[in-house]
Design goal:
- 67% of the residues lie in helices and 0% in strands.
- It is an all-alpha fold and 131 residues long.
- It has one domain (3-127).
- Helix 2 crosses helix 6 (96-117) and helix 6 packs across helix 7 (121-127).
Length: 131
Amino acid sequence: MALEDVHLDVLQNIEFAIVNVYQKQRDLRDIDVMRALDALIDVYRAEVRGHTPKEISLPEPEGTVFQRTKEMCDFRLGRPEAATCIQVPFEGEKTSSDILACLRKIRRSVDRWNKRRGQQGYLQFVSEFVK
């Protein structure tokens, strides 16, 4: 079964977080999203391996994408500190491996749409579907 069939809710939640930043910062580019996702992938990969993630410090607007997306991921992991700032339907806790797979899937999508449509190709594409 495809990842999007099993974790469509998580993929949508993560993309919602990204689009939310884009709606407030229209100069956000796909490369900013890629860098934030790369940092998140590093964080959750370390977690899956049982390591302490390294401290992440990203410039703006990447830092905002990182923070909002991490909040959503932590919410989906059932971490109570994230639940206070997220208001989306909750369909059950996921594992760090699930989150990592979803982040990787979205990262590939950002790369693909960026190559097809330019600097904001992914952001423009995904904004059509995430409101």
